[in-house]
Amino acid sequence: MLISGRVCGLLLVCLAACSSPESNKDPVFEAKFQNEKRIGEEAITKRQIRDAEYVVDAASRKMLLLEISQLATRKAASPDTRYTAQNVTAQTTTLLGGLKALAQQKSITLPTGLSEAQGTQAGELTALNGAAFDQKYQEVLSAVLDTDEDAADNIKDDAYDADLRAIAAQHVTVLQDLDRAANALHDKLKP
Is residue 17 scored above 80 in pLDDT? Predict the structure, then answer.
């Protein structure tokens, strides 16, 4: 069996990571590794690998949106920020639930937590208070929504799996609504 350079590289990185304590592993990396390992063993196409990576990344972004929005419902100084955060939490919970169901159906491993970079973003928000918190929340929210919307828009047409194309199309619509809400929040938070 031939192992692609990418999978071989992932194997080497994972072997190096295996020597570190379990708690130091990046959950997003681990999920991607487990999916590539399974896919490699089953001789699945590159498009299916891309589908699995999208599901992992999309779930990870939804987890970050939930983390920062739940934090915003508790810490926000502005009622507009709290309202937006509550809306994002409600919508994102539904989207993440759909991704989890799809992942289970397709045997795709999802991350168990935030990536290291996402954890840093959430930690930076936790350290802020008042208007500074509200402003940073809006900035992170907009950036994550933009990335998530672009990824969903791309995969809705290019996914190998028809179920994933349908879910991505649904996500695009919801993410566009959330992005409009984030932009409206930006306008309301301007001094």
Answer: no
